[in-house]
Every structure is written in C-alpha cells, then in structure tokens.
C-alpha cells in the first residue's frame, strides 16, 4: 500500500494547487460580475457583497491549503495527515464526479489495516537504536527554509527599490509585500526543521508534528490574507461644479458612458440658469494613482446652438511602469477595483427643457420638467416623475417607473419591471415592453385607446371598459394576448412582456381633451386646406372644430368621448376617417348624417 499512499499524497498536492488557481479565477469572475452590475443591487449592499467575496476567496484558499499540507503529510507518513486526508475524503464524496472518485480512492487506501500499520511505523521520523543512538537522520528542513527566506527578502527589497525610486514609497510597499509569500514559507520550513532536530532523541511517534504542520497552515493563510489585503483599493473623490446661463438653451444632453458607476439626476428649479455638479471617483491600489486619475477625468460642457452638451471624458492610463503596477497590485484580478470610475451628475435646469441622457451602470432620475425626454442606461433604473411631455426610455438591467406623466411614453427594459401612471395620454399613445418583469399601467377612467397586450408567461387584466370579442366590460386573461378598444378606441396602447403579468388599472383623473396640438401656419387664408367637423345633439350640445388639414388627424384622435360615441352611433368610424384625411382627399363634404335628434357633418374646405 506504500505506493498507493504516495500516489494519494501527490494527488492531494495537485488538487490543492489547482484549487488555489481555481479560487483565484472564481474571485476574478465574481468581482467582475459585481463591478458590471449584472444583477442590479442598491449601492449600499455592494460593500458587503465585496467583503463576502473576499471571505469566500480566502475560504477556498484554506481548503486548497488543507489539501497540499495533507498531501505532504501523507508522503511523510504522518498519522495526523492520514486522519486529515481521510476526513477530507469523506467530504469529497459529495463533489461529483472528480471529488467522488478521489474520495472513494482515499477511503479505500487509508482505511486498510496495512496502511494503518505503515503509518504507525513512521520511517521518516528518527528511530532510536538499542544503544540509544539515532538509527536514521531525518531530513534537514532548515536549509530550504533559509533559501525561501532569502528569496522573499531579496524580492521585497529589489521590487520595492525598483518601483519606489520611480513611482513613490506607497507603490513600493504594495509591490514589495509580495515578498511575504516566500518569506512566510521559508519561516515555516525553518521552524519545522528546528523542531525535528530537537526531537531527534525523542520518541518515534513525534507528538509535536501535528502542531508544527498546523503552524505551517496558519502561516500560509496569513501570508495569503496579506496578499489579498494588498489589492484592496484606495478611493479618491472630487466634485466638479459649473453654472451656465440658460438663455437660448432648450435642450440638455448628458453622455456618461464607459464608467463603472454613473447616476444622473435632472431636476427643475425656478432660476434662469443651469447648474451642473459632478462627483468624480476612482479606485486604485495606489493612492497617488487614484488622485491623479480623478484629476484627469474631464467634465466637458459645451453649447451647440440651442443645446447644452455635457460629457464625461476619461483619460488614457499608460506609462512605462503600469504593467508592474497592474500585476503586483493584482489589478488583473481586482480589475473593477483598480480601474473603477464613478461619475455621478446632479443637474438643475429651468422647468421647460428637453433632455437627452445616456449613462452606464447607473440610474436616471427626472423631476417635473416640461419637454421631451430621451433616456438611456445600462444596468440601472429609470425614474420619471411629473413630466409634461413625451418620454422615451431604455434600460438593460433595471426597472422603469413613470409617475404622474402628462404625455406619451415609449419604454423598454430587458430585466426589470415597468410601472407607469399617466394623467393624459399624449398625441402618440404609449408603448411599454419588458423581457423578464411585469407591466403595471394606470390610466384615466375616460382614456380612449386601442389596446394590444401580449405576455408569454403571465396574466393580462384590464380594469377599464374594453370592447373585446364583441363584449364590453372588465376582462382578464392568462397568457397569450388581449386586443380591443378601451372606451371606444383611440391612440395605440402597446404592452408586451415575456415573463410577467400585465395590469391596466383605472386612475382617479380623467383624460379630458388631451394635450393641445399647435396648428402650423398653413391655413385657408394662404391657400391651405381646412377640416371642419361639427356635431349637434338635442339639448344644446354642440362640438365644432375647424383646423388645418395637416393636423386634423391629431385633433380627431383628441375628440372627447361623447363626440366619438355620438359619431359612432351615426355610423362614423373615426379611425377610418383619420385614414381618409391622411390620404389627402379633395375639398368637399366627407360625411353628413342627420336624424331627428342629432347631426354630424364633416367637410374639407
């Protein structure tokens, strides 16, 4: 069984070495996973999650250390190593498939009576002859220990001098701390050799061996802990502020891409100026590098015609010694911490302002502005509250929340929920989409819309009156799609998700006339065409519209519900009428319907 014991020892040493490498790779993947925010989490949780990842990293290294130390002990036929590896073998049984095979082999080898007798003999320990002389001299571990110590000291001194003379004392300390690894191993070997020599004249069972190898394990873990702590990054922060007159500016554009974290907050105020505040942060293993990097982050502010453009400009990080820093400070492992850049914006603008915002790994928040909002982010939430105007929003991993919106909306998220509350419907309707998340939208009670809702896995519920399959009233459906006309139909309402429910709730307010539509200068007085719509009903109710033909389809879409219902009763399909207007008909009466109680007349003049 001696050959099997040696094979088993080599296997555990190899598995321990591979485990150390695996722990390093897992930590690399885990840290990059967090820095890219694949799963959106609140910022306050990221520090805790990072600490947990370091603890997992050290735990995996500890397991690898147990394997290597146990393998060495087996080669030396130490009884404590047999017990340690035997326990590890039982644990490995649940690690299918390779761990199970190794565990079965371990139990088969180490549980044999022949193996037990082999370890009791312990030939590698000093044997005492009958005359009291030492029959066999153990291996002297002091020389390799001194070699390891010398190598660690030499590396630490040379690396520290090489980096310190060119890059500063702090960098020298961070690079030189790598010398702790060979230094710790050398001290462990040296102490082990000294203990063995003192026990040469002692009993053959060498009761102090377990304590010696336990000390070696502790020293190794301490060394690796120091190594991990050397990669912990320093964070530096600076604040950029600028105020720009708002005269002649109707739109603000912000580009905050290629950063690890980048929130944007755009809020209205009553001043006639634009205030920009940007918080710049950078993480690096070296303090002076983080400070220098932050100073090089530029916030570019430029006015182009009626638009104010704000951009985050990141510096190029190059240098003759950057490869030294990148390797010895573990930048290649903790890439997010070494190169992480956080630029967040808080911007105040006049209430009437269009916005075009684009960021990476951050949220976008908009206050009660009046204008068109184009919003883009990756790995962040979109929050819009009290905006009067069209909103177009896209996010990859995050939710979309629209509160008290007066206008149309177009929003889509890949992994997140969509919540929308509309006070008015706008002139273009509403389109909301999600891949993995629900869609909840609240609309005024008298809103008119052409509904098209679709979900693959989920239910569809509409609390508003809807004409669906020749029925009117509340409808609820599980899966597939729902199509119909809400309150007689009107602007498009398109809701789509893959995994999630769709709910259309009834709000407290009323849609009313919808937003006003500005008429273009083209009119009858200068050769243009006019559309005249007149609806009479007994009881002194009269609706009369005379607008340029170029905007007639928008006016018809905004007709009050009573007028649309009356026209429908008279056989007038508003949607078909809109299509006829868009085809540019010739002047003349399009529709004229009259009975005893009411009259509808539509003509182009």
Topology:
Layout: H1 2-35, H2 43-75, H3 79-92, H4 98-110, H5 113-121, H6 142-167, H7 169-176, H8 180-198, H9 209-230, E1 234-245, E2 251-256, E3 264-269, E4 273-284, H10 287-296, E5 298-304, E6 307-313, H11 322-328, H12 335-339, E7 341-350, E8 354-360, E9 364-366, E10 373-378, E11 382-385, E12 391-397, E13 400-406, E14 409-415, E15 418-424, E16 430-436, E17 439-443, E18 449-468, E19 471-486, E20 491-499, E21 502-506, E22 530-537, E23 541-548, H13 552-557, H14 561-569, H15 574-582, E24 588-594, E25 598-604
Parallel strand pairs: 2-6, 2-8, 3-7, 3-9, 8-10, 9-11, 10-12, 11-13, 12-14, 13-15, 14-16, 15-17, 16-20, 17-21, 18-20, 18-21
Antiparallel strand pairs: 1-4, 4-7, 5-6, 18-19, 22-23, 22-25, 24-25
Helix pairs in contact: 1-2, 1-4, 2-3, 2-9, 3-4, 6-7, 6-8, 8-9
Q: What number of domains?
A: 4
For the biggest sheet, the summary is: 21 strands, mixed
Approximate helicity band: 25-40%
DSSP helical segment count: 15
Helix/strand-derived category reads alpha/beta
**Average of the residue pLDDT scores:** 72
Whole-angstrom Rg = 38 Å
Gap from first CA to last CA: 108 Å
Binned strand content: 25-35%
Bulk shape: elongated
Count of DSSP E strands?
25
List low-pLDDT spans: 124-138, 162-168, 228-232, 318-325, 327-338, 470-474, 512-527
